[in-house]
Amino acid sequence: MPQYWNREKFAADKTRSVQDSSNKSIVKEARIVSLAMKDDPSNVPLENLPQGAKLLSVGSTIDELDIPTLQQQKANVIFVSPGPSKETLATLIQELESSLEWVHSRSAGVDAIYTDTLANTPATVTNAKGAFSSTLAEYTLLACSYFAKDLPRLLKNKGRKDWNKYNILELRNATLGIVGYGDIGQAAAKLAKAYGMRVVALRRNPEKTKDDPYCDVVYGNDQLNVLFGESDYILCSAPLTAETKGMIGKEQFDAAKTNAVFINVGRGPIIDEEALVEALKDGRLKGAGLDVFATEPLPKESELWELGNVLLSPHNMDATETFMLESTEFFVNENLPRFLHGELLLNEIDKAAGY
């Protein structure tokens, strides 16, 4: 059974695993290739690796890497940072096929690096799931409150010096529907429960949510429209895969509860963006909080820029000052010692499913 990392659980002591592993024997070495921009400051922890691990090379393209030497050195670990292309990673996997044991993505989503080559490699593939969930959960509740308290009206009134009282909505007793009940969805559910909200979730494997203290109802993928019909706020936190691409569109917005708010922190292509715009314009949706888009940066001609009922952010609601550094520290301080000591790696992805 795969085990997953959680930033809240492990952040208190970033060196815990290194300290705990000091008395354990090293059963294998880690010969690491860092597929990254050479000046990436978030990769500084790679300069202080535990005993048994060695950084062989850093480069963002195949031309920047000495492939024959890496093959001779039997490189067996690839650490992938945002920036290098999926084609570069695919080529590197093929070139190191005889020695490669582990590929780790510094990002939580692997859609940007996903290829048939990655899906079919016998190497273990892990990601940074759990590193960015807390801040995206905070944004989710911010977006809910933004529309419940009508913050645009407050700001307009302040600008006009207009002491104009109006009724607001409570989040208490409202329903948050979560499409994709992974680590981000679960973090959002935890905060929603603190607000007194009811939580319903959609999950490919509903049985994984058995005895979850934060989820009231869990649905299978065939009940997406049901979730839209009973949710006051709908959070999309699903990964982008062949299965989820375009899964939310006109049919779901037609089924949405009156005055529902749609929030997306997953990936833009999961949504039919044209259908979303029309639902926001004709009132089928009260509003939307969007941090991700089908095309990024969001084109200036997109109508989403102009719609008054859209809270829009430039895919930065997980971008704390240290979020990428902490993700590298997870690799160095948590998963790398596990690899060296022959223990179960955290955050192994389902290569066939793509997450």
Automatic annotation (TrEMBL):
Name the keywords, alphabetized: NAD, Oxidoreductase
Domain annotation D-isomer specific 2-hydroxyacid dehydrogenase catalytic: ranges? 89-347
Please list the GO terms describing molecular function.
Answer: NAD binding; oxidoreductase activity, acting on the CH-OH group of donors, NAD or NADP as acceptor
Which Pfam families did the record assign? 2-Hacid_dh, 2-Hacid_dh_C
* InterPro entries, alphabetized: D-isomer_2_OHA_DH_cat_dom, D-isomer_DH_CS, D-isomer_DH_NAD-bd
Superkingdom of the organism of origin: Eukaryota
Any idea where the D-isomer specific 2-hydroxyacid dehydrogenase NAD-binding domain is? 148-315
Protein family: Belongs to the D-isomer specific 2-hydroxyacid dehydrogenase family.
Q: What is this protein called?
A: D-isomer specific 2-hydroxyacid dehydrogenase
Which lineage is the organism of this entry classified under, starting from the top rank? Answer: Eukaryota, Sar, Stramenopiles, Ochrophyta, Bacillariophyta
